[in-house]
Write a structure and sequence with these properties.
It contains 7 helices and 7 strands; from the N terminus they run ααααββαββααβββ. It has about 240 residues and is α+β, with helices and mostly antiparallel strands. Helices cover about 50% and strands about 20% of the residues. The longest helix is centred in the middle third of the chain and has 29 residues, at about 80-110. Strand 1 and strand 2 (about 120-125) form a beta hairpin. The strands form 3 sheets. It has a 3-stranded antiparallel β-sheet, covered by helices on one side. Strands 1-2 form a two-stranded antiparallel ribbon. It starts with a helix and ends with a strand. The chain has helices spanning about 5-25, 35-45, 55-75, 80-110, 125-150, 195-200, 205-210, and strands spanning about 115, 120-125, 155-165, 165-175, 215-225, 225-235, 235-240.
Length: about 240
């Protein structure tokens, strides 16, 4: 079957664009559109190696890792090595997931207008069908994103510094969008923390209830297992550091 370079580039540009968006959603990262487009274009250009002879598994893996590292750097930046490596890993896994699913389709259904070489996927379709499929894929992506955005698997990690009466403590935390617990008096949001972390600032919990009456709050809460009470303490300041 004849492989047309223009269709190959456009198809992979669109696919890479959505793979990067999917990775950004999993990472809970905001990415600029122009960076995503440039990264997608680089990924599309790399698809031209479909015209090369079948590579060895090691050579193919090294090539994919190299391309993925460049795409991750372009789309997500390299200011933080930790954040970059995380973005690279997620993008690589998402890409592998896509390649694996396409390989399964190829082996199971054996579509006549589909070619896979060096893990690059090519569909022999008309531009009209390509545009239509893109629009439908985008709509499906938006629908699923809205459905699952509240229960995403990856939680946003951050660092919190809590201060009270000259004392402070630093905590590692995650953003829990399902936490709707608030202070009944002030309607302030509540950080659910480990007991040891609270003791570093307020001391023994039982003593603090008596000595810090102006700070203590009995907080009712409800979970799937029933209702109960939390011991809460009002801090002077809380600084949240993260993306």
């Amino acid at each position: 079957m004849v492989v047309y370079a223009d269709i190959l580039l456009v198809l992979n540009l669109i696919v890479d664009y959505f793979l990067i968006l999917a990775s950004a959603k999993l990472l809970r990262r905001r990415v600029k559109t122009f960076r995503v487009i440039i990264s997608s274009l680089l990924g599309a250009l790399s698809s031209l190696y479909i015209f090369l002879p079948q590579l060895s598994i090691l050579a193919e893996l090294l090539f994919k890792l190299s391309v993925c590292s460049i795409m991750a750097a372009t789309a997500f930046g390299t200011k933080s090595i930790k954040q970059y490596l995380k973005a690279f890993a997620v993008l690589f896994l998402v890409t592998c997931g896509y390649a694996g699913s396409m390989l399964a389709v190829w082996h199971i259904f054996k579509p006549g207008g589909m070619v896979i070489n060096n893990s690059v996927v090519y569909f022999n379709i008309s531009p009209l069908v390509l545009v239509g499929a893109t629009v439908i894929s985008y709509l499906i992506f938006i629908i699923f994103n809205r459905i699952f955005s509240r229960t995403a698997f990856f939680s946003s990690q951050c660092e919190i510094i809590i201060e009270s009466e000259g004392k402070s403590t630093k905590l590692s935390a995650i953003l829990d969008t399902g936490n709707s617990v608030v202070d009944l008096f002030s309607k302030s949001e509540i950080i659910i923390a480990d007991k040891k972390a609270v003791k570093r600032i307020f001391g023994d919990i039982d003593e603090a209830k008596v000595l810090s009456k102006n700070r203590y709050r009995a907080v009712p809460f409800t979970t799937v297992s029933g209702a109960d009470m939390l011991d809460g303490f009002r801090c002077d300041r809380a600084v949240v550091k993260g993306d």
